[in-house]
Amino acid sequence: MVTQQTPTAILETVRSDPHLPGEVDIVIVGGGIAGVSTALFLAEKGLRVCLCEKGQIGAEQSSRNWGWTRQMGRDPSEMPLSIESMRIWRSFDTQFGIDVGYRETGITYLCRNAREIREAEGWAETGRLFQLPQENLDAKRIADVLPGIEPGFTFALHTISDGRAEPTMAAPAIAAGARARGASILTECAVRGIETAGGRVSAAITERGAIPCSAIVVAGGAWSRLFLGNLGIDFPQLKLLVSAARIDNVSNVPEMPVGGGDFAFRKRLDGGFTIALRNTNIAPIVPDSFRLLPEFLPTFVKSWRELKLRIGRQFVNELAMPRQWALDGETPFERVRVLDPAPHEPFNRRAVRNLRRVFPAFSSARITDDWAGLIDATPDGVPVIDQVEEQPGLFLSSGFSGHGFGIGPGAGMLMAQLIAGETPLVDPAPFRLARFRPNGRKNAIRLTPIAGKA
Length: 454
Ligand SMILES: Cc1cc2nc3c(=O)[nH]c(=O)nc-3n(C[C@H](O)[C@H](O)[C@H](O)COP(=O)(O)OP(=O)(O)OC[C@H]3O[C@@H](n4cnc5c(N)ncnc54)[C@H](O)[C@@H]3O)c2cc1C
Description:
Layout: H1 7-10, E1 26-29, H2 33-44, E2 49-52, H3 61-64, E3 68-69, H4 79-96, E4 107-111, H5 114-129, E5 134-137, H6 139-145, E6 155-159, E7 163-164, H7 167-180, E8 184-186, E9 191-197, E10 200-206, E11 209-212, E12 215-218, H8 224-229, E13 238-248, E14 258-260, E15 263-267, E16 273-276, E17 281-284, H9 287-291, H10 293-302, E18 307-310, H11 313-320, H12 332-335, H13 345-358, E19 366-377, E20 384-387, E21 394-398, H14 404-420
Parallel strand pairs: 1-2, 1-12, 2-8, 4-14, 12-21, 17-18
Antiparallel strand pairs: 3-7, 4-6, 5-6, 9-10, 10-11, 13-16, 13-19, 14-15, 15-16, 20-21
Helix pairs in contact: 2-7, 2-14, 4-14
Bound molecules: flavin-adenine dinucleotide.
């Protein structure tokens, strides 16, 4: 029998504030890891913050993910932010008193063929460039680092300062930390759009009324493109369906997250494991697949091995979804409080079979739940963390392309610093929205601080 252990069933519920606040400095749209981290670091600076979540805090991608917090495999342009994010994960407990279930266990990636070894060795160069503590493991070291593994692997990449956190704990705990520092947190409160005065953002219009503010951060995950589209702003973003499962009844398996070409697992704090088929995702064909084909074609070509194109209900649902709306009636955000797509169960079952071949300890594993999430991908797989140049006072933190859990805390700190006009913890240039505009890479950054120490 399948028990009720889906991420949303065990997600820590953050109750909503009963009333809208008065005027605030910043409204944040979305209570995933990006939104709550931004709220925390803005509230730390003493700014007045209100976070609005259309459903429940963390209920979309941020609770459904595998819980890997890794620098390994990151695009070089994301490395500085990944490194800073790991510092924040480590310090949540000690510096902020927030328990996110973080454990610095290290992460190991096992290579099964020459192509995977070449790719891992290639990435190890990036790791060395950033002085990441890491080790290339040979067959003997693999057996030392991963006791219980079947012999056969001759190469693995092991990053020592990577780790894992608990997705069902993290976003709610960070939201509670933001609230403890003065932020308002509203759930079941969709933001329908924005109001402007003199060309600048002047209010967020929610389903419960207006919140006057001078800045809005869109951290809407898979919904950001739709939200910005209603404002006439193009944000190229497509969704990919990733399935995962929980398994129980396994012991004597490493504490660290381990991936191979066709499996991934992470031990959970509750003793179970989150597992998935690695490098195999479903790309649902939707109307945006055609609209955004020119931008995404190079990615599709590069990742054809990993993507399974599927046409189904989502095409019809998105075709029927309004792309423009007035702010005084129901919007798509209120109609879908939580994106809860059906998992592709055969992938999860295949992942368990693959795992059993590599770690016999998984022979007795039993799937006790399956779920899926829709990840929000940009054409280059790097997020946008930036001011939206077309609309003064509007900021965007989205497009985390399947790895935003790990870098979410750093993204939150960076966004808070950009808004406050402080020196950013990393160079924000790789995260600019303008890179997706014609001649975008040449545009200068023009940030208008709304407050802060400069
Ligand atoms: C199965 C799976 C496995 C993954 N594994 C990993 C991993 O191991 N490591 C890793 O780093 N990343 C992983 N990821 C990716 C990671 O989960 C995401 O990149 C990250 O959670 C994105 O956070 P977010 O805050 O941008 O979006 P989300 O968590 O999706 O949050 C966005 C929120 O905005 C809300 N919202 C949208 N529009 C509105 C509106 N108009 N008004 C109010 N609220 C709104 C939504 O309801 C939602 O709660 C995985 C993802 C999936 C699906």
